[in-house]
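We emphasize that the prediction below concerns an isolated chain of 218 residues; any contacts that depend on oligomerization or on bound cofactors are therefore not represented. The input was used exactly as deposited, without trimming of termini.
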Amino acid sequence: MTYIYEIWTVIFAVIWIFLFVLNPKLRRKMAYSSFFAGLLGFSEPLFIPSFWNPQFNSIVLIPGKLYLCSLLWCFFVGGFVAVFYQAIKKRKIFKTKVNPLLIFVGPAIFLAKFIFEFNTMHWCLISLLAGALVILLFLNKEQQKSVFFNAVFVTIVYFIIILILWNVFPALSQSYIFEYYIGFSPLGIPIEEPLFAFSFALYWCPLYDIIHSYKKRK
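Result of the prediction step, given as a C-alpha cell string:
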C-alpha cells in the first residue's frame, strides 16, 4: 500500500525548499514558523478518528494515533503558509505593534473543546478563524491585505495538491470519516480541508511578524 502521507509531505517539503532557497530575507521566519508548526503535529491524536483514520501505510510513532509525517507535514506546511504571499510579492517582514498576547486567543478558544463536546476539526476551524480575526483587527490595511491574500493563495495551492492525491490514491478518500463532516465536498473533497488551509494560513502568517516586532521594540 502506498505511503500517501509521506508523498504529501514530500510535496510540501519541495515547495518549502524552493521558498527557503529563493527568499533569504524570509528564511528566519520560515525556520521559526516551521519549528513551532511541527510541534502542532503532536495534536494528531485529537483528529483520529474524529477527522480521519489513515487507511494507508505510514511510518508510525504511536500505533493508530501519531505518525512521523504528523510532525514533518506540519513542519513544512507551517513554513509554507507563513511566507507564501510574501515570497511571491518579494515583501519583507512587516512591522506591527500588535500585543503578542493576542496570538493566544485562538489556542485559548480551542482549549474549550476539552470542556464541551465539539467536533475537533470544526472547533479547530472556529478557533483559528476567531484568533486570526482578532489579530487582523489590529493590523493596518496593507498588512491585512497581505495576510488575507496569503491565505487565499495558500488555499488554492493546498486544494490543488490534495485534489491530485485524492484522485490518484483512492486510499486517501477512504481515510476520511465523512459522518463527522458538514457534508459539502467540492470535487469530492470535504470542505473542511480547504477551510483548514485558509484558516490556518490566516492565523499563522502574521505570528512571527508580531513577535519579531515586539522583540525589536523591547
